[in-house]
Write a structure and sequence with these properties.
Oligomer: heterodimer
Distance between the termini of chain B: 72 Å
Number of helices of chain A: 3
Order of helices and strands of chain A: EEEEEHEHEEEH
Largest sheet of chain B: none
Helix content of chain A: 25-40%
Number of strands of chain B: 0
Structural class of chain B: mainly alpha
Order of helices and strands of chain B: HHHHHHHHHHHHHHHH
Radius of gyration of chain A: 17 Å
CATH architecture of chain B: Up-down Bundle
CATH topology of the largest domain in chain A: Alpha-Beta Plaits
Number of domains of chain B: 1
Distance between the termini of chain A: 30 Å
Shape of chain B: globular
Number of domains of chain A: 2
Largest interface: A-B, 22 and 25 residues
Number of helices of chain B: 16
Radius of gyration of chain B: 20 Å
Chain lengths: 160, 386
């Protein structure tokens, strides 16, 4: 699945992808915290047919409905299916170099081969955090990858 | 008593603007043309001339210009400005040439001289980013594929304004070509310095201004903006540019709260500014200028449509999106009046003010209407052809 990311100057960010059945869906992340869910015309990929503005709370609720269950299933399945893949929960201690920095800065996947699949903050699961997700000390980061990969991510967060 | 009549007049003006604003909300149009008309009605040669509150209105208008430019600077972060300059320079230059030339040519044909030509070029060049943003969000075009291209053009125009305003002010002050070049150099260095500071040390500026109390934040930001604007004016760089640069230097969450705090103030003083501009424009001058304004409006609507088409085509967007991009850019509004205001107060022919007023009246109304009509029209056209 290809996630297209476009900057919207003065507004925020836009992420768009096409589903397996060819529907294009996008999310516009406003700087104000508002999220727009957009659906594109099937015949004309340039035009959005429907825009649903969501408040931050509504967007969180929707994300949880769409994401959490799947994440847990996916993790269980990964553990069962692939020998050699491990999931690791990395707590972010105070003083981690990524406190206050976005996920994109870690370049975890490029540098270690392991993926950050979720972040747990205040008991809430934030599934598939986006590149602009900002870490804070106290978060727990869930990483999936090889043993070396996840160890490298742990090292990254503790000051590498 | 002097102050009582001032209060009554001022109250009546602001209440009147509120009622006009309500009309604009009801019909979902820009309030700018209504404010201008109100100013025309009350001004010299209008139906109900005002006299006692002109002084306050004049100062208010100046603050309005500063706040307009400040919030425009807030709109985009320094990295967005620099990024756009890298990616959209070609489209931005096409926009500049296509839309500035008709204005400049008109001023020269009317025999108003080269400085008026520079002013009118600016007036026909700049799209109203306020109206364009409203059109895009009202019509649900935010997610469309042409929208990033349209926004990039608006950002580029923003940057162009930062270079253009100091040149214009220098020329208007009678500095001549050499003075204009010096002003451009000073402005260029200042803008580069501000962008550098904002990109590298934005955190420190923010730390200085930041405060958990809205009240403190409001006073700090407003004070800093007016102060820098005043200093810039003193250095002949134009107060508007100074305010704009303060806006750029602030970014991140702070810019967001600053914008929320200052928007009501900006709306108030910007409305006062539009009225003031209308006040000083003689409605008697407006009529002979209407024909020219209509021609110029038509020509520059077409050139903006062309700009949008070109920008969207470069983004590999199909025909309907290209038309939408063009129509979103047609509206002119606040900054066109700001430029005309600068020119007229520096003593350029008052007919330039009348022309700009008529021009903005036409395009601030026609732009959004055109955008609304764009989709149904293209759809039926494409259906008929298929």
């Amino acid at each position: 699945m290809d996630l297209e990311r476009t900057a919207l100057p003065g507004i925020g960010l836009q992420h768009v992808f096409a589903t397996g059945r060819g529907r294009r869906i996008g999310v516009i992340s406003h700087r104000t915290g508002r999220r727009d869910l957009v659906l594109y015309d099937t015949r004309d990929p340039d035009t959005c047919l429907l825009t649903v503005p969501l408040t931050p709370e509504e967007a969180d609720a929707l994300a949880e409905l769409l994401g959490t269950g799947r994440i847990v299933e996916r993790l269980a399945e990964l553990n069962r299916q692939a020998e050699g893949l491990v999931t690791e929960q990395i707590p972010l201690a105070a003083g981690t170099p990524y406190d206050g920095r976005p996920l994109a800065d870690t370049q975890a996947r490029t540098r270690t081969g392991a993926s950050i699949v979720a972040v747990i903050r205040d008991g809430q699961v934030i599934a598939s955090p986006r590149p602009d997700f900002v870490f804070a000390a106290g978060d727990t980061v869930m990483v999936v990858g090889t043993a070396e990969g996840t160890a490298a991510v742990t090292a990254l967060f503790s000051g590498g | 008593m002097h102050t009582t009549s001032q209060l009554i007049e001022l109250g009546a003006i602001i209440l009147g603007l509120g009622l006009l604003g309500a009309v604009s909300v009801r019909f979902s149009i820009s309030p700018i043309p209504l404010y201008l008309l109100a100013g025309l009605a009350f001004g010299s040669g209008g139906v109900l001339p005002l006299d006692t509150s002109e002084e306050f209105v004049a100062t208010g208008a100046e603050v309005g210009v500063i706040l307009l430019l400040f919030t425009l600077g807030l709109e985009y972060t320094a990295s967005e400005l620099v990024g756009t300059l890298r990616t959209s320079a070609r489209v931005g230059l096409a926009d500049l040439v296509l839309n500035a030339v008709p204005g400049a040519a008109t001023a020269l044909l009317l025999g108003w001289g080269p400085i008026a030509a520079v002013a009118l070029a600016g007036i026909t060049y700049v799209t109203s980013s306020g109206i364009a943003a409203k059109v895009i969000s009202d019509l649900g075009w935010l997610g469309n594929r042409e929208t990033p291209a349209v926004l990039s053009i608006l950002v580029f125009e923003d940057l162009a304004m930062a270079a253009y305003l100091p040149i214009l002010t220098a020329l208007l002050a009678g500095a001549g070509l050499l003075g204009g070049a010096t002003a451009l150099l000073v402005a260029g260095v200042t803008i580069a310095a501000i962008l550098f500071v904002a990109l590298r040390y934005g955190r420190f500026v923010e730390r200085f201004v930041a405060s958990p109390s809205d009240e403190v934040l409001l006073l700090k930001v407003l004070g800093l903006t007016l102060l820098v604007a005043g200093i810039a004016e003193h250095l002949q760089v134009s107060a508007a540019v100074g305010a704009f640069l303060v806006g750029i230097a602030l970014s991140g969450p702070l810019a967001h709260s600053a914008r929320q705090l200052l928007s009501p103030l900006r709306d108030l003083f910007a409305a006062v500014f539009f009225v003031f501009f209308g006040l000083r424009t003689d409605p008697g001058d407006l009529r002979p200028m209407l024909g020219v304004a209509a021609l110029l409006a038509t020509a520059t609507a077409v050139t903006k449509l062309g700009t949008g088409w070109f920008a969207a085509r470069r983004a590999r967007v199909a025909v309907p999106g290209r038309i939408r991009a063009g129509t979103a850019l047609v509206s002119r509004g606040e900054f066109n009046i700001v430029i005309a205001g600068l020119a007229v107060s520096a003593g350029i022919t008052p007919r330039l003010g009348s022309l700009a007023a008529a021009y903005v009246l036409i395009l601030a109304v026609a732009g959004p209407l055109l955008a609304r009509a764009a989709e149904p029209l293209t759809r039926s056209y494409l259906r008929n052809r298929a």
